[in-house]
Amino acid sequence: MSFERDILERIPPHIRGLKGYVPGKTIEEVVATYQPDRISKLASNENRWGFSPGVSEAVGRAMQVANNYPSALANTLRASLSTKLSCTQEQLVIGAGSESLLGLLCRTFFGPEDEIVTASATFVGLNIQAHIHQIPVIQVPLTPDYRFDVGAIAASVNERTRAVYIANPNNPTGTIITKQELAMLMSSLPEQVMLILDEAYVEFARENPLYPDSLPIITQANTSIHPNTLILRTFSKAYGLASFRVGYALGPAELIQALWKTKNTFEPSGISEAAAISALEDDHFLINSVQRTREARQDLEAFLAHHQIPYVPSSANFVMLLAPDEAQALRITESLLHLGVIVRQLSPFGISNGIRITVGLEEEMVHLKQALESCWLPG
Asked: pLDDT of 325-340, one tens digit each?
């Protein structure tokens, strides 16, 4: 026991004090604790329509050679992505999802003497990875309508700032920064400050005419007004591959080359790469599932408006509801769990009165609406 205590005492103080990721409840936990008649899992922003039918066949083929190491460079997936995105393979690095890539950025480019500027309520993976690497994060409050305050973020940049992180659309609010706001932010940032655009939900936001197309920043260097820009994207959301853990970073070749030096070897797995390649080829599934998600989200927002349940209009595959206060948000979340509806209370994300609900299948949305009608506060 003394040996164990000695090891624990040697854990660096910043790791001992780290507030790690708090996951939502699993289906198994809800069944064991509440024993509801049915379950609708609407907490984690997964694609409730599944994934492309071709993925299963591709994974089966990859399983036949799973005794071999995968490609260290994920060359086949990078080739597919470079064609899809009109960029070069040298501008791409593949990782095990967005948080893995954020950890890669932190250990490659930043140190304790630097700062990252972002919003007060955004993807928690950034704060965790920055804390692990002892990088201070300056958190700028959201606007009253739960959007990134781009002007205040630009004003918070100082001589220590090495990066600005923007999740667009933002998780957990579903809000975006517009074309005009992105252009203003890029023109105001010093060249040495990296702009990180986390576009995990980009496929759902393209319908919004105000949403900016970020790819030309990277792929058309002659039009770039901020060359130190990195774009993060994932296969976990619209492509439905959350369990496979695949994401990528797109940026200038020189920055991407630096990331390869510190990247975990053989990440992602060969099975995950095969799944991503297959998913990327199926435009029909992607278009169809995004359209169905959009229709279901619009229907949910109409329901919320009709019942005077406060919410934030979303450009993602989820909607954030606003309870009167944290206590009521916790009560409503608990009541929904008793009824078998798993949602995400947002205190860990910095919005204590928020409840995030993933847009789901028709039967899941019917279940949700019935549950909300029975447990939301009147008025």
From this structure: 999 999 999 999 999 9
Beta bridge partners of 247: 95, 234
CA distance 27 to 357: 15
Alpha-carbon gap, residue 110 to 314, rounded angstroms:
32
Instruction: Give me the CATH code for the 53-281 domain, please.
Output: 3.40.640.10
CATH of the domain spanning 22-50+284-375: 3.90.1150.10
Q: How confident is the model at residue 379 (pLDDT cuts 50, 70, 90)?
A: very low
- Residues paired with 138 in a beta bridge: 117
DSSP-based three-state secondary structure for 253: helix
Whole-angstrom Cα distance, residue 133 to residue 116?
12
- Range 27-44 average pLDDT: 94
Backbone angles phi, psi at 111, to 5 degrees: -140, 180
- Main-chain dihedrals φ then ψ at residue 15, nearest 5 degrees: -80, -40
Separation between Cα atoms, residue 35 and residue 22, nearest integer Å: 22
pLDDT digits (tens, 9 = 90+) for 346-375: 999 999 999 999 999 999 999 999 999 999
Which residue ranges does the chain devote to CATH 3.90.1150.10?
A: 22-50+284-375
